[in-house]
Amino acid sequence: MSDMRGEPRGVLFVAGMSHRTAPIELREQLALEEEKIREILGDLANHGVLQEVMILSTCNRVEVYGVAAVPGEARAQAFGRLGSHRGLAWRELEPLLYTATGEEAALHAFRVAASLDSMVLGEPQILGQVKDAFALAQATGTAGPVLHALMSQAFGAAKRVRTETEVGRLAVSVSYAAVELARRIFDGLAGRAVLLVGAGEMGELAARHLVDQGALPLYVANRTWSRAQDLACALGGVPVPFEELDATLVHVDIVITSTAAPEPIVTAARARAVLQARRGRPLFFVDIAVPRNVEPAVNELEGAFCYDVDDLRAAVESNLKERQREAQRAQALLEREVVKFAGRLQQLEVVPTIISLREKLEAIRRAELERALARLPGAPEETRRVMDALSQAIVNKVLHAPMVALKDSSRAGHGRRLTEVISELFGLRGSGSAE
Amino acid sequence: MNVVLFDVALTAYILAAAAAIGSLAGRRDQLAGAALLLTQAGWVCHTAAVILRGVELRRLPFTTLPEMVSLVIWAAILLDFWVERRRRVRPLAAFVLPVVLALGLGLPSGLRSIVFEGPVRSGWVMVHVALVLVGLAALVLNFGGALMYLLVERQLKAKRPGAGHNPLPPLETLDRLTVASLTVAFPFLTVGLTLGALSARGAGAGVAPFDPLALFSVLMWLIYAATLLGRVVGHWRGRRAAYLSIAGFCVMLVTLSAGALLHGHLAS
């Protein structure tokens, strides 16, 4: 495994199961800790079926990426080994596995890294998990040039998807949608005062998100004073008496309401008076309570924006649809990346031959140079240097044409034929081209 | 040559406007990039056209109404660059460029007609023209900002799904842009218009009481004065101020048209 050049030519493949194909009961059995994965990687490498291998194990997927002469055999061996840790037979796992080879495997890897295959489309954690899996394979010595090329391209492609499309940008949770809407109203959230009325879980979460984005200070109002104090303490806010709600509304920017009150707390008349005192500064109500705490008519007032839980859900729905639309753009981008990767792979095909050829000629040069210098024991340093430079120049000139031909042929897609011819002509062994 | 360059600039602005609107509608960053590049290219050609015109005609290149409108466009685009860069109000061009085009396409070919008449070609007139020019350019931005404000406010009030991934700037930023542009425009406009009236009187032309150009100029000034006063004293914000900005801009267009159609000279 350590020397790829001695191995027979392999095929890139991916085999695995994910949230799309396997139930969580099975996935959780295959999700192994790092030490176990390291051990399995070592075993698989020593067995000789896989030339390169890496294992991606998250709560949503268990996948084996590898290079092998016979991917089917490699797949059975890898999952047989993974399953054996939890007493799962290969026969149980096989129907749930998907497999792809070559460019399809590359596209799959790119989709996974760019989070197009994730349960929550565009979630950011998966890229880090893929990076960790690759780092583990590198540390274990089971990642070779093909996986290296695949992963470096996958990381670059994932970054492009993140920056060039909106796949990961839009909020897909109700509490975060409130933050996103606040950004549409205010010129930055830093220093914006927030008032949290009530103690609902979702309201608390929205307040936390706002504070994370720099909103400050956070006031907490509750009909029960001790409850307001506790919550303020937990969130790092300031408790305010419920009776002082109007005065607080005048100087905050964002109000989150989530009380169990049966009647609206903020009526249109109350809001109108508050808005007048605010001298036109906008006020954003996030009403997460059901029944609603803020009268819908408040939204009609100039300078007031009121979103209830249904409005926030609608925004999330729309964001999810937008993410799906963006995923199509991202897919097209990844398909172009696969074409680039195929080009890189073709170039990789000739690299071992180029290295072998250079090494062989360099060995001949050194041997012949030493022999010649042995015949000139008293030769001055200048003569030795000239002879060394001369021999090097000859080798470079001889190498130039075959190197160019190899690179050109790899670009044109028939590098393999030429590597065989060159290996035959120059008597290269273990160049990766000899079957 | 300056006429050819001006046409090239105008063509670049047309393409830039199309790209900017397209980027807004289709949410494509590449189109926004193309719009910026085309606007920059157009502005460089425009600058060259203005300088060349001055050299070719051996006089200041803003002594006719079309030349002045051309310079309003030039300055408005310069301000747009500054605002987009400094305040990160990215899609402003999509709102400013169509206005610029409406002004630019209304110009006579070769910027020929409607020359200053008679003895009003004094130094004060030049100062008047320069001041009004800066004021009007800032008002083009004020109009663009007000339009964007109303659009974003409408989206937020209507709770239209999709408001979350809107490329338009936040409401507050747009409100600040309209205040800032009006605050810049108003003193220039006030001093510029006063100088214009005084120069006309000094030159013996006087200002007729029912002169439509003077009437519209005063009306425009009053609307902007009311908007500014409302903002400072009455704490008007947002929608009301935006409507007034748009009304003021419409009167400004009428004023320029009045200048072009009725008068044939710039006695404003």
Structure characteristics:
heterodimer, A: 435 residues, alpha/beta, Beta Polymerase, domain 2, Rossmann fold, 2 domains, six-stranded parallel beta sheet, 15 helices, 13% strand, disordered C terminus, B: 268 residues, mainly alpha, 0% strand, globular
Q: Order of helices and strands of chain B, N to C?
A: HHHHHHHH
Physical arrangement of strands within the biggest beta sheet of chain A: 7-6-5-8-9-10
CATH topology of the largest domain in chain A: Beta Polymerase, domain 2
Number of strands of chain B: 0
Largest sheet of chain A: 6 strands, parallel
Structural class of chain B: mainly alpha
Helix content estimate of chain B: over 70%
Helix percent of chain A reads: 55-70%
Query: Overall mean pLDDT score of chain A?
Result: 89
Radius of gyration of chain A: 32 Å
Q: How many H/I helical runs of chain A? A: 15
Within CATH, the superfamily of the largest domain in chain A carries the name Glutamyl-tRNA reductase, N-terminal domain
Largest sheet of chain B: none
Shape assignment of chain B: globular
**What is the number of domains of chain A?**
2
Interface with most residues = A-B, 31 and 25 residues
Radius of gyration of chain B: 19 Å
Q: What portion of residues of chain B belong to β-strands?
A: under 5%
Strand content of chain A: 5-15%
| CATH architecture verdict of the largest domain in chain A | 2-Layer Sandwich
Walk me through what this model shows:
Chain A has 15 helices and ten strands. Chain A has two domains: 11-171, Beta Polymerase, domain 2, CATH 3.30.460.30; 174-319, NAD(P)-binding Rossmann-like Domain (Rossmann fold), CATH 3.40.50.720. A six-stranded parallel β-sheet of chain A has the order 7-6-5-8-9-10, with helices on both faces. Chain A is an alpha/beta fold and 435 residues long. In chain A, strand 6, helix 10 and strand 7 form a beta-alpha-beta unit. Chain B has 268 residues and is mainly alpha-helical. Chain B is built from eight helices and no strands. In chain B, helix 3 (65-86) runs antiparallel to helix 4, helix 3 packs across helix 5 and helix 4 (92-105) crosses helix 5. The longest helix of chain B has 36 residues, at 123-158. Chain B is globular and about 55 Å long. Chain B starts with a helix and ends in a 5-residue tail after the last helix. The model of chain B is unreliable at 113-120 (pLDDT under 50). The A-B interface holds A 164, 166, 169-171, 177, 180-181, 183-188, 279-282, 299-300, 302-303, 305, 307, 311, 314-315, 317-319, 322 and B 27, 29, 152, 155-157, 159, 161-166, 169-173, 176, 235-240.
